[in-house]
Input
Amino acid sequence: SQQGEEDPQALSIQEGENATMNCSYKTSINNLQWYRQNSGRGLVHLILIRSNEREKHSGRLRVTLDTSKKSSSLLITASRAADTASYFCGFPDQAGTALIFGKGTTLSVSS
Amino acid sequence: SAVISQKPSRDICQRGTSLTIQCQVDSQVTMMFWYRQQPGQSLTLIATANQGSEATYESGFVIDKFPISRPNLTFSTLTVSNMSPEDSSIYLCSVVGVGGLDEQYFGPGTRLTVT
Output
């Protein structure tokens, strides 16, 4: 299966703490994208990282990509209650067009 | 990014009926896709909506059950036909190619409940 794996499946932290979630995939990819989903709504695009990039930042978000290990991580620093959501990584399918998604990490940030 | 709208946002339907979901983008895009997210699950690709030709379906999805149209570069519809309770899911359209970029953006989703 091309489906990725994410861990942990669930993560509970306090406000102000950092949250790290990981994504692994099986095939060679040219980019990987991270998304947030609140309460079963649409996916919000967070970051796209390309295969020739090792790290990318956007505000409190930091994404890394290790193509040798076929893995990526999303770090959210100084978490807020509003960060409570499910986070998914998506990577291109064999045709290189649509995205395949991992099972996601459910993050709960308590105040 | 793109502004993507979906109609309806939610619906409750009786088994055996059909529902057509619309997806509208505010700019021309290269590719449009339809995904399904069953309760508590991740997203599964249903098909790629091709402009002016038949959609390309993933394994496990067929045109008779999920007919798709894409008459132009900014609009697509997905019909869920002869619905059963197992079709209760969130259906999401997504697009690639906004401004020539690789990012894939998603619509707000349509929450479908079949009774």
